[in-house]
């Protein structure tokens, strides 16, 4: 079995980014940039006020001295004018400084009397001026290719003064849940031997969160002919097919054989991790195919570890960027691990990460509260509360 890092390396080498398209900026939120986004101009274009107050020439301004308020400047003014000796200007946040001014004194320090004003002691030394180009210069790269347009990145993109951006296409995802025992939620408990099919709901939500478009979801029984038909239909319409279940080595584990007619080139199969040993990745007809375990919790853990990086890479994003393990303190003790690298579901608390009490791969009730995965190498000794671990946001 491959170790986790080796499997991720194989995934990164196998995946290729999708085609690109140009979108109006207003329609590009959550998409991945297909080229560097550069600023069209300096920001700010000229020195502007950072406060409501008065624009003055700092060297010629003294506390208590009356000065003439020559004019008023609002944000967006095309021509802020100029100041002569003994003159100041009323100015508002974001307004351009007039020629001859190099400082803004906050209005809280001003005493106004008609067209003149003076300032009390203590208004310095802050100048309250945003200098021209202090944020960025024309041609600066504000967002690199592969950056996802998060809410914060959208602000930077708009600040660059671009109306449209080139982004990668959204991956089209088909999900196939396999297993005779699966039934639609709402009907399973009335059917002897049936279980609610739950894994695909979490996988679909995670994929959509990563910008993917779910083009089909289906369930298949443990019948190779039926599953082969579903595989062909999925490959016809999707860029990536996700199969849950059927990934072990039993007589009814048909997740890989179902792609036999279409041809399946394995990238990896069986990883030395817990949970999720049966996870596999391949290509079929030029499309990515990923097989996740049938146990819903194992499916969600492996989707976080492998599907999210895969979807990011298909959109020009970084695989490593999806796997940023951070040092975090433990809020409760952890037992030693066995022979496989283990990913422990845990909940973040003010006292640190608290592992969920039930770590069985089939347990679903604690899953909603698990917002971190603790990464523990094979054969790691026990760790007491307060110890540091590596963890990934789940």
CATH architecture of the largest domain: 3-Layer(aba) Sandwich
Largest sheet: 6 strands, mixed
Estimate the global geometry from the Cα principal axes.
elongated
CATH class of the largest domain: Alpha Beta
Number of strands: 26
Summed up, the helix count is 5
Poorly predicted ranges: none
Helix content: 10-25%
CATH homologous superfamily of the largest domain? MoaB/Mog-like domain
CATH topology of the largest domain: Molybdenum Cofactor Biosythetic Enzyme, Chain A
Any idea how many domains? 4
Q: What is the distance, rounded to the nearest whole angstrom, between the alpha carbons of the first and last residues? A: 24 Å
- Overall mean pLDDT stands at 96
Structural class: alpha+beta
C-alpha-based Rg, rounded: 30 Å
Strand content range: 25-35%
**Spatial strand arrangement across the major sheet:** 7-4-6-5-9-8
List the helices and strands and how they pair.
Elements: H1 4-14, E1 20-24, E2 37-38, E3 48-49, E4 53-56, E5 67-73, E6 87-91, E7 103-106, E8 110-113, E9 116-119, E10 129-130, E11 141-143, H2 151-159, E12 164-168, E13 172-178, E14 182-183, E15 195-196, H3 199-209, E16 213-220, H4 224-237, E17 240-244, E18 265-269, E19 273-274, E20 280-284, E21 287-292, H5 296-314, E22 326-329, E23 341-349, E24 352-355, E25 372-376, E26 388-393
Helix pairs in contact: 3-5
Can you offer a commentary on this structure?
It is elongated and about 90 Å long. Strand 20 (280-284) and strand 21 form a beta hairpin. It starts with a helix and ends with a strand. It has 394 residues and is α+β, with helices and mostly antiparallel strands. The protein contains five helices and 26 strands. The protein has four domains: 4-16 and 169-322, MoaB/Mog-like domain (Molybdenum Cofactor Biosythetic Enzyme, Chain A); 21-42 and 145-168, Molybdopterin biosynthesis moea protein, domain 2; 48-130, Molybdopterin biosynthesis moeA protein, domain 3 (Beta Complex); 326-393, Beta-clip, CATH 2.40.340.10.
